Fold this sequence. Notes:
Oxidized Rhodanese, domain 1; 16% strand; elongated; two-stranded antiparallel ribbon
Amino acid sequence: MRKKIILIIMILLLITITVFFIGLSSNPTNHQGYTNITVEQAYNLLTNASNGIQIPIDVRTDSEWTIAHIDTPAPENPQHWPNLQQGVNLTEFMELYKGKEIILYCRAGVRSKTAANMLVEHHFNGTIYNMIGGIDAWILAGYPTKAS
């Protein structure tokens, strides 16, 4: 009886480990209709015109935006869409940025991820990047910001 219990435990452990490693091997970068990017990748996209134009979209509150937001070179100015992750002004947003490449960011990456998922669910016609770590990681990396 004891050998059967040990065998069952070993089989369950093996199954658990297998499922865990299968989950780790999946590509988390672009698995939900948007692409997670680091602040380094975002900075490179925003400062290198040869790869097209990407528009940074800040989904934080007005007060957070006023303190600091991403400072980018021309041609595109940073955009502020507070409460986008809650669906506020979604139709207007979808039309304005149709066919564009956007980089969503917030303070730490949670609200921008929510906004990215919402845009995917509503079939946004464009390229969506979600900046992991948000403006906190951007500032920590020493990239430029400005206040409004």
